[in-house]
Design goal:
Length: about 210
């Protein structure tokens, strides 16, 4: 029996995941956590074979997102991690694999794809949601484990946008033209394979650019 710990800040999501995970009879949920602090405390006390965790779980002393993945990779290097997230885009996919995740599942497809991810990870393989694989094909593929790289100025623009500044305000603050800031924002989004401001802000938060 595969021992599984699940982490998500929404109780209803954890209930649904428990049902899906245990339906096949091969897995048993041995613990649940609602945030990073609770998860790390649980992992220190309860042995498990697989961790299924949300990407964005605000609150507590420990960081979520990529910070949490990196910490888990250092403290529990042999523990496979499946990431279930609503921020399912190529930037998240590549950066999550680069930070140690073994699978990434879009939350809106988790009931169908979570068992597939578990099976793949247990076989020593990686897994990505079908929607993400389609995005990779459209973007021209590439190494999905390679974390996207932004220039210093692009990171600066993304960070300032995510902190609430407009393109015009950023241009005035850093003494660049509005068209230059717009171009740097556009280039950053292309590098990250992100098409919406919501996904861009989510990436910036997960990457630790903003609190």
């Amino acid at each position: 029996m595969l021992r599984v710990i699940i982490a998500d800040d929404h109780p209803i999501v954890r209930i649904g995941q428990r049902v899906v995970i245990e339906a096949g009879g091969r897995c048993k949920v041995v613990g649940e956590a609602s945030g990073p602090d609770e998860l790390l405390s649980l992992l220190a006390k309860v042995p498990c074979d697989l961790l299924i965790t949300d990407f964005a779980m605000p609150g507590g002393q420990q960081a979520d997102g990529y910070g949490l993945l990196s910490l888990l990779s250092r403290q529990y290097p042999g523990l496979p991690v499946i990431l279930v997230t609503m921020f399912a885009n190529i930037a998240t996919l590549r950066a999550s694999f680069a930070h140690g995740a073994r699978a990434i599942v879009a939350k809106n497809a988790s009931a169908k794809e979570l068992p597939q991810a578990i099976k793949a990870v247990c076989a020593g393989q990686s897994f990505a949601s079908e929607s993400l694989r389609e995005q990779l094909v459209e973007a021209g593929g590439g190494d999905q484990s390679q974390q996207p790289q932004l220039s210093g100025k692009e990171r600066e623009v993304v960070r300032m946008l995510a902190s609430g500044l407009t393109v015009s305000q950023i241009a005035a603050r850093v003494n660049r033209s509005i068209s230059t800031i717009s171009k740097q924002k556009s280039t950053a989004m292309q590098r990250l394979c992100i098409s919406t401001d919501v996904d861009l802000f989510a990436y910036a938060r997960a990457a630790g650019m903003v609190p």
